[in-house]
């Protein structure tokens, strides 16, 4: 297993953990539990961003930019009409 494969796995794990922590925060019944999940969520987001930045620097994670026209169409589609 090479470094790229390992980092892809770690990034996928970080994304999954973020999802779990977010739902934990949403479903929390007390402020203390919500703050705990929120802090863990923030840490997981930071870790995921760090992994992404490292992968992007190595050319292992590339994002295609959307054309400006497509962005405007999507924005108009979801903008409130009233």
Draw up the topology in text.
Elements: H1 3-27, H2 31-57, H3 68-78
Structure commentary:
With 82 residues, the chain is mainly alpha-helical. It has one domain (3-72). 77% of the residues lie in helices and 0% in strands. It is built from three helices and no strands. It has helices at 3-27, 31-57, 68-78. Helix 1 runs antiparallel to helix 2.
Strand content: under 5%
Structural class: mainly alpha
In N-to-C order, the SSE pattern is HHH
Shape: flat
* Spatial extent as radius of gyration: 17 Å
Give the % helix: over 70%
Number of strands: 0
Number of helices: 3
Number of domains: 1
Mean pLDDT: 93
Question: Distance between the terminal alpha carbons, to the nearest Å?
Answer: 54 Å
Q: Residue ranges: pLDDT <50 for 5 or more in a row?
A: none
Question: Which sheet architecture does the biggest sheet show?
Answer: none
């Amino acid at each position: 297993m090479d470094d790229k494969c390992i980092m892809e796995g770690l990034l996928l794990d970080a994304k999954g953990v973020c999802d779990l922590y977010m739902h934990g925060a949403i479903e929390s019944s007390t402020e203390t539990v919500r703050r705990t999940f929120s802090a863990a969520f923030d840490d997981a987001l930071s870790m995921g961003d760090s992994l992404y930045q490292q992968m992007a620097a190595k050319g292992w994670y590339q994002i295609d930019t959307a054309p400006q026209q497509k962005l405007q169409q999507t924005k108009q589609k979801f903008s409130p009409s009233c």
